[in-house]
Amino acid sequence: MRLNKLFIFLVFSFIISCKNHYNETIEWADNLQNGLSIESVMKVQPHFIKIDWKNPRHIENEKWYLITEIKGNDDSLRMSHYLVFKDDKYQYRESKK
Length: 97
Fold this sequence. Notes:
alpha+beta, elongated, about 30% helix, Beta-lactamase Inhibitory Protein, Chain:B, domain 1, 3 helices
């Protein structure tokens, strides 16, 4: 009986530690203030995401920075998420298939 409780506790602890930060990432990006500088966005970037700050895509007069990793991501659609800047000021998040 005691062993079963320990096993359940360990499984529950493992599930909690594998938190998916996907929705938190989307919420963070969507709530960034328009006009923030790239440096300001870098400072408030959550620890559970990685962004390719060194290799933006250039589309017309915008720079698109790819979110390369979201800790615990299980997005079955495999969406790509970008932070879009115009004149080095944050504009919005763009998601693409």
